[in-house]
Amino acid sequence: MTPQQATPYRQQLLEMRASILAQMSEQRGGVFGRAEAAADHFERREDSSAQVATERELEFAIDEREIGELAMIDAALARIEAGTYGECIGCGIDIPAARLQASPEASRCVPCQEKAEQPRSA
């Protein structure tokens, strides 16, 4: 993919990145980290310990998902800079434009992604 062809995807990835960062900041209540926000949030005495534990696990799961999304976006931006964006990291073929439009952070074609998601047997 040429740099000109990658430009719209780059813009979409940057917008996705900015949106996730803004969402994370809003959820955390500003500039302090999720751990500090969670500690403040979970200091309420009226909640049961089970409820607090469940909410804490949910907070950390959301954080993990957001960090994963940011990592995929950053990896896609790095592939754009390297000139390899749009090539499947599994088999090297071009990822169809429809897949990149739907999921611009995609690093694999659909068959390679399906193979990567299959559980590994022992």
Key attributes of the depicted protein:
flat; mainly alpha; single chain; 122 residues
Textual characterization of the structure:
The protein has 122 residues and is mostly helical. It has a domain at 3-85. Helix content is 67%, strand content 0%. It has five helices and no strands. It has helices at residues 3-28, 34-41, 49-82, 97-102, 110-117. Helix 1 packs antiparallel against helix 3 (49-82). The longest helix is centred in the middle third of the chain and has 34 residues, at 49-82. The protein is flat and about 60 Å long. The mean pLDDT is 84.
How are the secondary structure elements laid out?
Layout: H1 3-28, H2 34-41, H3 49-82, H4 97-102, H5 110-117
Number of strands: 0
Q: Name the helicity range.
A: 55-70%
User: H/E series, N to C?
Assistant: HHHHH
Question: Beta-strand percentage?
Answer: under 5%
Query: Structural class, judged by helices and strands?
Result: mainly alpha
Rg for CA atoms: 19 Å
Shape: flat
In the predicted model, the low-confidence regions spanning at least 5 consecutive residues are none
Give the terminus-to-terminus CA distance.
38 Å
* Major sheet characteristics: none
Count of separate DSSP helical elements: 5
Overall pLDDT level: 84
